[in-house]
Design a protein that fits this description.
The protein is 45% helix and 14% strand. By secondary structure, it is α/β, with parallel strands linked by helices. The strands form two sheets. The chain has an eight-stranded parallel beta barrel, surrounded by nine helices. A two-stranded parallel sheet has the order 9-10. The model has no long low-confidence stretch (mean pLDDT 93).
Length: 372
């Protein structure tokens, strides 16, 4: 089954100004589990972070079926801390691009290979299940990335995480990278971690899955560094509706709204899956079809995400929309309304104080003419 790893409490909390209270973190964990996600990256493995142990304990006691992972540098003290906390999975992170190896770490490719081998071996000796994340994989030289993937597989890693760290990959580039790394990954599953700097995080995650990746990271509301990451609600929604994965979209919508309230943020009305206006329609041609068969202009039902449909009569409404609306309201409406009356009714609706009675008044001359 295609799998989402939620990293709201690790990557998501790296967003500037984002700080969740212990209670809020528990509520988010509960919501993620109700949504059908079965693994969460709960934070960073570091003795300097004193809340991680409580989160792992909460998950173990409250959601024993949830896989608990921790992000970790390839440092023995951090890996040992993850083992002491009895994390299910430790996600070792190491830069893969020359720009990060040389300019951030001030190291070499040879150092990177050595550190990777040492860290995996140490983690496995401590009894940890090991995942390896390659930071900035989309800017790494392909043959070197493949070499790192092969080393991770041979060392006993169960999965690889390929990160588009600064969000510059296109779906075509993502597809190519995943396909090429898969050639040397063997039974080591491939996941992706996509950033949204070019607005393509969800598209890149979906593309990676379509070419064979086992899954992707996601965060509630797309929280994360800079422009954020793949949105949990978008990725789960796509997988649920297009690939029949068992995610509870109603619960995800509730989780998103709770998280937004906790952060004092407003979800845009047109935000996919969670916006209040995504089932609101005012355009005449669409209104006509929606009144007959909602599937004509809705990719999924409002009930899927706990929303409701709103068909508005506005300045863009057409003849049939006016007739249908006023008849449902109990007004007598002639079979035909001339174009001039339609234009007047549209103009009238540009005034927010207009009522159904105001609209019906335009029909009086028509009704009189019909009688005479």
């Amino acid at each position: 089954m295609t799998m989402i790893i939620d990293t709201t409490l690790r990557e998501g909390e790296q967003s500037p100004g984002v700080r969740f209270t212990p209670s809020q973190k528990q509520q988010i964990i509960d919501g993620v589990v109700r949504a059908g996600v079965n693994e969460m990256e709960l934070g960073i493995a570091s003795p300097l972070i004193d809340t991680t142990a409580d989160l792992l304990a909460y998950c173990k006691n409250t959601h024993p079926g949830l896989a608990r992972s921790l992000w970790s540098r390839c440092r023995e003290e951090d890996i040992r801390f993850a083992a002491e906390l009895k994390a299910d999975i430790v996600s070792l992170s190491l830069p893969a691009s020359d720009v990060l190896i040389e300019k951030k770490m001030e190291k070499t490719r040879e150092w990177t290979i050595s550190r990777l081998q040492t860290a995996i071996a140490f983690a496995r000796r401590l009894g940890l299940q090991v995942a390896v994340g390659f930071e900035d994989a989309t800017r790494a030289e392909l043959h070197f990335l493949q070499q790192l993937a092969k080393i991770a597989r041979q060392g006993g890693a169960v999965r690889l995480r390929l990160a588009d760290t600064i969000g510059t990959a296109s779906p075509a580039e993502m597809a190519s990278m995943v396909t090429e790394v898969a050639k040397v990954a063997g039974d080591c599953r491939i996941f992706v971690h996509c950033h949204n700097d070019f607005g393509m995080a969800t598209a890149n995650a979906v593309t990676a899955i379509e070419v064979g990746a086992a899954g992707a990271d996601a965060t509630v509301l797309g929280l994360g560094e800079r422009c954020g990451c793949t949105r949990l609600e978008e990725l789960a929604g796509y997988l649920h509706l297009k690939r029949h994965a068992e995610y509870n979209m109603g619960e995800i919508a509730v989780l998103c709204r709770y998280t937004a309230r906790s952060l004092g943020r407003v979800i845009a009305g047109n935000q996919p899956f969670t916006g209040e206006d995504i089932f609101t329609c005012e355009t005449g041609l669409h209104l006509q079809a929606l009144q007959k068969h909602p599937e004509t202009y809705e990719p999924y039902t409002p009930e899927t995400v706990g929303a409701r449909r709103r068909l508005l009569l506005g300045p863009k409404a057409g003849r049939k929309a006016f007739i249908g609306h006023l008849r449902r309201k109990g007004f007598g409406v002639p079979e035909h309304i001339d174009d001039d009356t339609i234009r007047k009714m549209r103009y009238c609706l540009a005034d927010p104080t207009a009522t159904d009675d105001t609209l019906a008044a335009f029909l009086t001359p028509l009704s009189s003419a019909a009688i005479s």
